[in-house]
Specification:
The chain is an all-alpha fold and 239 residues long. 60% of the residues lie in helices and 0% in strands. It is built from twelve helices and no strands. Helix 2 runs parallel beside helix 3. The chain is globular, with a radius of gyration of 25 Å.
Length: 239
């Protein structure tokens, strides 16, 4: 693909599929080749998990805002690493680059400080279970009206399938653990801010509109969310 060849040449990477751009790193560095102000040290070029992809796209969104680029970034679609979504966005990036690149020299490896860029080649979501099990030869045998010669042959590939599923479960478990740590990290920060604001508000003469606004943000809830009644909760526990 000509577009993929352009990305590989510009960024000195070795992507084999346009879906790999869904990690966000390539998009960030394309913008860096134009403006030279993307914090590439924070861009994870070898991201392998969706939360890492999202972090890269947050950096890209900041660049778009800083340079007043009026182009929505469909992050939720791109991080799924599907071919069509990333192809369309990369086509836009190429047109934008053609219109804005000034022809200045650009060393992509130096800009990312030699950081690895080996995103998974098979990064797109797994196909439906029916298509994955099709390779076992079971459904094909039934369609032809024949039964396997022996049970061993029909299940001969099961061990590799089990290993693959275990690897997926392990990866999801690691991902979940990282998300929980990130959640607890930010919750602790919010709690510290809440305590600081409360202390300032309780100090005579320290109440300001800014503190009240911060407190309002901390205690705001999404539409449809109801704060549990502490008394009701206590009654249920004692019962």
């Amino acid at each position: 693909m000509e577009l993929l060849a352009w990305v590989n040449d510009l960024l000195q990477i070795n992507y084999t599929k346009i879906e790999q751009c869904g990690t966000g790193g390539a998009y960030c560095q394309i913008m860096d080749s134009i403006y030279g102000d993307v914090p590439m040290a924070r861009v994870k070029m070898n991201a392998k998990h969706e939360y890492e992809f999202i972090a890269n796209f947050k950096i890209l969104q900041n660049i778009f805002r800083a340079h007043k680029i009026d182009k929505p970034i469909p992050v939720e679609k791109l991080v799924k690493c599907k071919m069509q979504d990333n192809l369309e966005f990369m086509q836009w990036c190429k047109r934008f680059w053609d219109a804005n690149y000034g022809g200045q020299g650009y060393d992509p490896v130096a800009r990312r400080r030699g950081a690895p860029t080996d995103t998974p080649a098979t990064i797109a979501p797994l196909p439906p279970a029916s298509s994955r099990t099709g390779g076992l030869g079971v459904s094909g045998a039934r369609a032809g009206g024949k039964t396997p010669i022996s049970g061993h042959r029909a299940g001969s590939t099961q061990p590799s399938e089990v290993i693959q599923l275990r690897a997926q479960v392990q990866e999801m478990s690691t991902h979940l653990e990282s998300l929980e740590k990130e959640r607890d990290f930010y919750f602790a920060k919010l709690r510290d801010i809440e305590i600081l604001v409360q202390q300032e508000l309780e100090t005579e003469g320290r109440e300001t509109q800014v503190l009240l606004e911060i407190q309002k943000i901390l205690y705001s809830t999404e539409e449809g969310f109801e704060v549990p009644d502490p008394e009701a909760a206590d009654e249920e526990e004692t019962f």
